[in-house]
Amino acid sequence: MALNSLSSPSNYFQKTLRLSPKSTKATRSSPMVSMTSTLSSTYTEVSTHKKPFRPPHEVEDQIIHSMPSEKMEIFKSLDNWAEQNILTHLKPVESSWQPQDFLPSPASSEFYEQVEELRKRAKEIPDDYYVCLVGDLITEEALPTYQTMLNTFDGVRDETGASLTSWAIWTRGWTAEENRHGDLLKQYLYLCGRVDMRQIEKTIQYLIGCGMYIKTENSPYKGYIYTSFQERATYISHGNTARHAKHYGDQKLAQICGTIAADEKRHEAAYSKIVEKLFELDPDGAVIAFADMMKNKITMPAHLMFDGRDQRLFQHFSAVAQRLGVYSAKDYADIMEFLVRRWKVESLVGLSDEGRKAQDFVCRLVPRYRKLEERAQGRAKQGFSTVRFSWIFDREVQV
Ligand SMILES: [Fe+2]
Ligand SMILES: [Fe+2]
């Protein structure tokens, strides 16, 4: 397969600009690679830092503006379509749930009693579950990064901060909905008494400072493919933490995670509908973008997380999520299979040479991922090492 030609199709990279960081610090490439932690860029470690305000993990070789500028017109022409078809996936504020609906009310005379009950239920839940829930919370809490990321996309960004294009209204509405996810999980975790809130807060501060680099290159094609994938990933992950909470007898926590999962599903529906439209209007551009994103692997949004101590925090969190089945290599392959079917990639016709190669690449990925999935499961069975997580007061958890 002509992978190289797919990764850098000439017309896609005409306006490519490489950002070369001034830093010449030691870098390492390809840290532990798993389906859940696909950090393939090189990045610089914190321990060598001389400038205190540089992020602990720095991404090198960043590429910007790879989408030909004329493609921005497609998004302008879709503004009415987005109003009719995408904004309808948002929920009006008045009929939206709020975190307080799921938490003890501080104004209630039963507040202390309710908190006591919440803490009693939390005692029945093992530490490894809390590692996953904290990782999910931290991922949600880096929301400023995700809104920033959506506003890097050419042709759909919110140009003023209060723009009335459908794309900008969507981005702000989506952000406002997402904001409740981190709020709810954080308030629950604060009350449950099982986790080190200060370490969690530090991790969030570090992560937002690091940002994220997901190789979307300012292209809404790539960006909305990424968000389709990622919303489904978070839907699966929150759905699994809901299932596990139920298993440990905590119906209320199950309801919290399940409610968040339902939001993610609604968001996935919207983003995947945008990409479906792109496949209809510009199948070549859409399939090439899809192949590029998959070739780079979908990088998880919190891939640069750091707690001030563990240099491999994200990999360790991912390993626990994999072992518990909260988010695993199987899910990655399932999502890929789902999206290939959702966008009917196999039956695309009338593609250019480059488009056909991209189609071929994408369609052959699922069986390859299934093999990697088997290997990941094998590795998980072999390993019995443990890691201390600062999020749970340095208690050890099996990875
Ligand atoms: Fe979310
Ligand atoms: Fe979401």
TrEMBL record:
Belongs to the fatty acid desaturase type 2 family. It is found in: Plastid, Chloroplast stroma. Pathway: Lipid metabolism; fatty acid metabolism. InterPro entries: FADS-2_CS, Fatty_acid_desaturase-2, Ferritin-like_SF, RNR-like. The lineage of its organism: Eukaryota, Viridiplantae, Streptophyta, Embryophyta, Tracheophyta. Fe cation 1 binds at E140, E178, H181, E264. It catalyses: hexadecanoyl-[ACP] + 2 reduced [2Fe-2S]-[ferredoxin] + O2 + 2 H(+) = (4Z)-hexadecenoyl-[ACP] + 2 oxidized [2Fe-2S]-[ferredoxin] + 2 H2O. It is an enzyme of class 1 (oxidoreductase). Its EC number is 1.14.19.-. Fe cation 2 binds at E178, E231, E264, H267. It holds the Pfam family FA_desaturase_2. Homodimer. Residues 21-38 have a biased composition (Polar residues). The keyword Secreted does not apply. GO terms for cellular component: chloroplast stroma. Gene3D superfamilies: Ribonucleotide Reductase, subunit A. Its main location: plastid. Residues 17-38 are annotated as: Disordered. Introduction of a cis double bond between carbons of the acyl chain. Binds 2 Fe(2+) ions per subunit. Binds 2 iron ions per subunit. GO terms for molecular function: metal ion binding; oxidoreductase activity. This is Acyl-[acyl-carrier-protein] desaturase. GO terms for biological process: fatty acid biosynthetic process. Keywords: Chloroplast, Fatty acid biosynthesis, Fatty acid metabolism, Iron, Lipid biosynthesis, Lipid metabolism, Metal-binding, Oxidoreductase, Plastid, Transit peptide. Its cofactor is Fe(2+); Fe cation. It comes from Dendrobium thyrsiflorum (Pinecone-like raceme dendrobium).
